[in-house]
Amino acid sequence: MDDRNQSHGYVTDSGYADTFFRELSPAWLNYVARLNGSPPRNLDAAFAYLELGCGFGSSAIVNAGAFPHGEFHACDLNPAHIEGGRRQASELGVNLQFHEGSFESLLGIDLPPFDFIVLHGVYSWVGSDARRAIRRVIEKTLKPGGLAYVSYNSLPGWSIEAPLRKLFVELAATAPGESAERAEHARSAVNRLRSAQLRYFRNNPAAATAVESYFRRAGSYLAHEFLNQTWEPFFAIDVADEMAESGLSYIGSATLVDNHPALVMDAGAAEAVAALPTERQRQLAVDFAVNQRFRRDVFVRGRSARDETEAARHLESAAIGVVANPDRIATKARVPRGEITFQSDFIGELQALMRGGSMTLGETVAALGGRGRNEREIARNLMFLVAAGPLMPFARAFRFDVLHERPRVANRLVERVLTYVVRHRVSRAIPCEALGNGVEVRPIDALAITAWLDGTQDVEDLKMYLLAGMREPGSDVAVNGSLAQSPTEEATAAARHVVEQLVPNFIRLGLIV
Q1: Within this chain, do residues 200 and 221 fall inside the same structural domain, yes or no?
Q2: I want to staple 172 with a disulfide (CB 3.0 to 4.6 A). Which of 14, 182, 241, 264 is the partner?
């Protein structure tokens, strides 16, 4: 049978959500490696990258655009996904090779050795044969020292909610329509059972809360989450054992906060975990401490003895910065354990530094040091801010210098993405070379930025321009606007946001020069 016609039990009649995942960025994965004492991959030279189960390719397209000197490949079984990805990549002018077929089919293709292999939303939703093929692809094509990203539903966090999946599948089985429609039917049926106060829901309030959350998800998402033939959550140590068969060693989490036990566990839990005799036991216990339900694991191919001096050098060279307004870096940040607080003078000086662009961790520590400050503590605080979200890993340090007399977009790709967003009325991430990642932009913002670049830079004039765009027949440019706002309020808010926030951010990121 033609490989393309074999779904292996995976939902193919509904497209997966067209979503960009920032954790798949080479720069993000390099930061995880640095943070955990593993050498990063060289992003200044040519490198190769493969995404398995790419969906419509949104993440692969952004990453390929952010690293034009890289060689990017993406694979998916669903023909509609591949067709949509190719169409979008072609329209944006991004160089990306798509492969339609199963993971097994990649084993017969002449592929380059890869520096990065990533798969998001795949491992828990395919059968054992497909998982084995994934590991064989990694074993065959990932370079020594290369990084692999594997995300999956995990235990013990799914233990209470897992029975809902069985109920979901059975209720969807008798419903008409494609998988997305059947998933919506099952959702309503499960909710009626929840409302009837079945004892399972009374005894497991978390399961009842989960059902309520399903109504915030599209039917296509629920179909891909629950209706595949295979749906299996894993313990992290079992996944690590499987990856070890392909020569991989676990190094850390792309959920950055999970790399800092102090931010996810209280002191008592941390002490109890630390007292366990082996790293394997400690890793398992951490997942019980935080009730982990989804993991984003990062592995390295092979692992030599850690050189502390070299590890420190790699960490100091990690670039960090902000994507939003630096003035929004606050003295308090939310983390799973609660709230962490920073001294106001430290935050004020950090804001001033970040207004000029991104810097390496070592440069930032040096600039904030002195006056009797503890540089080790400063470095820890910066890493905590990256973990909590106010700061973000960058591909390279980029300092804003002087804006051209007539501002323009940095390259044709930025221009094409803005045009794409306005034309198709969809939010998209703009590839950013300094960030090595994507910057999300809404249709109304893309329309306003385009007008700003054309010379409409006054807030009031920009508001009137946006209002005219909203009033075009069939226009839904304000798709992300609040339903509580009138068009005038929406246009005013968007105009202010673009002039006061988004344009300065784009300048600082090198997207506007």
Answers
A1: yes
A2: 182
